[in-house]
Write a structure and sequence with these properties.
This protein has 548 residues and is an alpha+beta fold. It is 32% helix and 19% strand. The chain has 3 domains: 234 residues, 4-Layer Sandwich (Phosphatase 2c, domain 1), CATH 3.60.40; 91 residues, Phosphorylase Kinase, domain 1, CATH 3.30.200.20; 184 residues, Transferase(Phosphotransferase), domain 1 (Orthogonal Bundle). It is built from 14 helices and 21 strands. α9 packs antiparallel against α10 and α9 packs antiparallel against α12.
């Protein structure tokens, strides 16, 4: 995830005018910074309008760009498009160049900064070691008395071939965009000094302008972005790694020999190295031409590497790889579905499973993640030598997503909360629903709302009590399960902590009743108290009546 400190400020040349500068930025998908700064050319009547139009154009188009466009392609096509629009609008409305602006754009993706500029607005990079570089080119006439004349600008000609530069960046670097209104008042050294003091754009611009009266200087714009964390997922995605199209027994990757395929699709393998067996997972072969599938695999590998809790198997990504894959420890055991074919689950084991699922999800939440596909098939059951009872491990990192993800396709229909079918965000409550369904199924062999097929639009009527199928389930555990699978999110646990608290404190669990339960079923004690009171009052009235 990309994290940064940002500031931007635009100061017109006088308090009573709007000015010709414009700037803005956005962070898309928590991973992509797009910053744009334009300085409308003052000699053109519509320079300010061109600047504002260009800034809005880039921000809007980056938000909707096709996923398979890379940054260089996007910057090139967007620049050519807005340049042509401004030029044609000038020719159509004014028959001469009036919509004219400088343009500089900075885009951060992964550990790479992409820059492009037209005109004399500037882009600087102050590296972590405090060294400052100018990453833009001043497109101005070389003659000293003509240095104010631009040789390139946005809207100047019908066609332009922008030059895109890419620069590796790291945590601690600072990116600066500014108009020539600032660079004409401050030297590079003074800009660097002020930024390294930790000052923001507003204070730097106001300080630079304070010695000048209105209209004695140009408009001034400045943007500062201090990088706190880079989105490593995009950096990994951009690594030049081979995606094997065909895999067979005996193939060797970085010393790991493929032993046997573990899935029909042939992309998950048992591998051997130095006498030890591991699991190696490759992306699907189609990912070579599918950037979305590739990104999903990169995220899967990244999330798997972050997860360190013992509820999950250890996973890692070798630093140096000849192909795109990641590795996992081999977990010896069988999934919960296979395990329950030969024996029923005991109540103690069901409680242990519930606590295990809570711990697994709580660890993921600490990382800002959720599993996304909790179900018996993704739970491995195994025995530890010398220990009584069963142990569990969670598998399938392919479904792990960030908490509150809206567009996630993760999950198996029969285990999805009702709101997930309507596009709601995946969160603790929806995950608890999946946990509840898993426990219900493990204890009863039934789905509370029936088996739901992919692409089906299900209706969620009241589920039968789990004890309908298994009389051994304690009332307190049944209440926890039924509350977890409530179709109404308002009646469900909202947080893992609530669920776990009741698992640890059976005596504090409030009974769960079906909505169509009778009053005597819901409140038996109150029913008998009211009955006693009514009977008492009836006897008193009768006594008074017969003794009058």
């Amino acid at each position: 995830m990309l994290k940064l400190q940002s500031s931007q400020f635009n100061l017109p040349k006088a308090a009573d005018i709007r000015g010709d500068d414009a700037c803005d930025f956005t962070i898309l998908d928590k991973s992509l910074l797009v910053a744009v700064l334009c300085d409308g050319v003052g000699s053109a009547r519509k320079g300010g309008a061109a600047a504002r139009q260009s800034v809005k154009f880039f921000i809007d188009h980056f938000k909707t760009r096709p996923k398979n466009w890379d940054i260089t392609q996007s910057l090139t096509l967007f620049t050519q498009h807005i340049n042509r629009l401004l030029f044609k609008e000038s020719m159509t409305q004014y028959e001469q160049i009036e919509l004219l602006t400088t343009l500089c754009v900075a885009v951060v993706e992964g550990d790479t900064l992409y820059t492009m500029n037209l005109g004399d607005s500037r882009i600087y990079l102050i590296e972590k070691n405090k060294n400052m570089k100018q990453l833009s080119v001043d497109h101005i006439m070389e003659e000293e008395n003509l240095s104010h004349v631009l040789t390139q600008a946005c809207g100047l000609t019908d066609h332009i071939e922008p030059v895109i530069f890419s620069t590796s960046i790291q945590k601690g670097d600072t990116i600066i965009l500014c108009s020539d209104g600032l660079s004409s008042l401050m030297t590079d050294d003074s800009i660097q000094e002020e930024v390294l003091k930790g000052l923001g754009s507003t204070l730097i611009v106001q300080t630079a302008a304070k010695e000048h009266k209105d209209h004695e200087r140009d408009d001034i714009s400045m943007q500062i972005f201090r990088i706190e964390e880079l989105d490593e997922i995009h950096a990994i995605k951009n690594q030049k790694l081979d995606i094997p199209q065909k895999l067979k027994i005996g193939d060797i990757f970085d010393g790991y020999t493929l032993v046997s395929s573990m899935m029909e699709h042939g992309r998950i393998w048992k591998v051997e190295k130095e006498g030890k067996i591991f699991v190696m997972k490759f992306p699907m072969a189609s990912a070579i031409d599918d950037p979305i599938a590739l990104e999903e695999f990169v995220k899967e590998a990244w999330y798997a590497k972050q997860v360190t809790h013992k509820a999950f198997g250890h996973a890692w990504v070798p630093e140096k790889r000849c192909a795109r894959y990641y590795l996992m420890d081999l977990i010896e055991g069988i999934n919960l579905v296979e395990y329950l074919k030969n024996r029923p689950i005991t109540i103690d084991s069901a409680i242990a499973l519930a606590k295990f699922l809570h711990k697994a999800e709580a660890h993921l939440l600490h990382l800002g993640l959720v599993h996304g596909d909790i179900k018996p098939e993704n739970i491995i059951v195994f025995n530890k030598e010398g220990e009584v009872g069963v142990n569990f491990k969670m598998v399938d990192f392919g479904s792990v997503v960030e908490v509150f993800e809206v567009n996630s396709r993760a999950g198996t229909p029969s285990y999805l909360a009702p709101e997930r079918f309507k596009g709601s965000a995946i969160n603790e409550s929806t995950e608890l629903f999946s946990i509840g369904v898993t426990l219900y199924w493990a204890l009863t062999g039934k789905y509370p709302y029936g088996e739901i097929e992919p692409f089906q639009t299900p209706t969620f009527k009241q589920a039968k009590l789990a004890s309908t199928y298994n009389k051994n389930i304690p009332h307190w555990l049944e209440s926890i399960i039924m509350r977890s699978i409530s179709p109404d999110a308002q009646d469900r646990y909202a947080h893992y902590s609530e669920f776990f608290y009741e698992l640890k404190s059976p005596e504090k669990v409030k009974p769960y009743y079906l909505k169509d339960s009778s009053f005597i079923e819901r409140e038996p004690l109150l029913f008998y108290k009211l009955g006693f009171f009514i009977l008492l009052m009836t006897n008193i009235v009768s006594f008074i009546y017969y003794n009058m």
